[in-house]
User: What shape does this take?
Amino acid sequence: MTYRLTGDDVAFLRSRYGEKALTVTADYALSADSLLTDLTAVRSRYPDRAAALVETVRARRRAVAKFGTAGAMPADDVLADEVSVQQATAAPVAAARAADLAARHPGALVHDVTCSIGAETAALADEPGIGAVIGSDLDPVRLAMAQHNLSLRGSGGRVPTLLRADALTPTSSADVVIADPGRRTERGRVFGIEQLDPPLLELLAVYAGRPLVVKCAPGLDYHNLRTRFGFEGQVQIVSLDGGVREACLWTEAGDLPGQRATVLRTDPDGEVHRYEVTSDEADEIDRGGDVRRDRVGDYLIDPDGAVVRAGLVRQYGHRHGLEQLDPHIAYLAGTAVPPGERGFRVLEQLPVKDRALRTALSARNCGRLEILVRGLDVDPDRLRKRLKLSGDEAYALILTRIGRTGVAFLCEPGVRAPL
Assistant: This one.
């Protein structure tokens, strides 16, 4: 079920009666199996608002993973639909960007020109190093949701100024502008920069000469943006807990490194740790290439996706004294696993041949196998079936190439080094 909230829906949901109705609706499972039955039950009590109630409750449940249940925008109390939650920035990512802005532009007035339901705007308002915050959006319904969500901050939090405006029509003299163009239409997700809403190139043109930060999809072809359209700013790739979340464009050239990878990791206590790698760092690295080398005892490391997508594998390897197996493959090798990362200790080096792999795995009584592949045309699921695993032990198999030669590394299960 996907339902687009209306202005009347938002007004109802913000009322005392609407709050009570949301509490009642939250008692239903609203799962894929029970949704039709639950919707019928909700409709019997709230015939005119059942769809809005169900949509909001389901959106709140999805929002827990992005916003948490405390902080700038508690997921349990937000007004949102599922599409707006999907588009919203995760709280740790937004907080990290706000801290960057405060460090680079202390005391600045920051204008979020595509504030939607307010996730990014809330993080900006929470950052004490930022002077003041404006949020605007062209969609009156999203803006009404943002007004509610940002009011959750109470007397202890700074409430930003909100207004309705087109992102392509400058409406403030803010020191810094932030934009998050929409990447979904009625027909689904879009990928081309000209299909974004508002279009990326128009944003860059409208705010030329002013510090602009634009959040884009992680798969953005930033090489094309540089070579074809002359973008000269910084491309920042951000990941959170192992998943690449976005490519962020900073238009300021100056002293900013051209490429930056920002890696955010949440520890068991909920604290977010951060490290960064930039293109300004040294990139001298030992590039292996000798297929015959015995790597038993080494750890193989698959760097965080932000590092890989930002093209900073060599810089990361140099920092930690690692070796790159092949100059075109992101796998690194070393005697220890860098803090916070996952590594696989090598037990055997094998040819990429089913018979050799099956023999080695059978000898080790392997029954559970994680398969990672880079640089080879191998389907892990099909290979696992061909290997006919039947034992009790767990291992990892890393398939890659060094030069033109395919290589398999049979490893212990992956371990993550402490942060």
User: Anything to note?
Assistant: The chain has three domains: 7-85, 88-278, 286-416. The two ends are 40 Å apart (CA to CA). The longest helix spans residues 50-67. DSSP finds 14 helices and 20 strands in the chain.
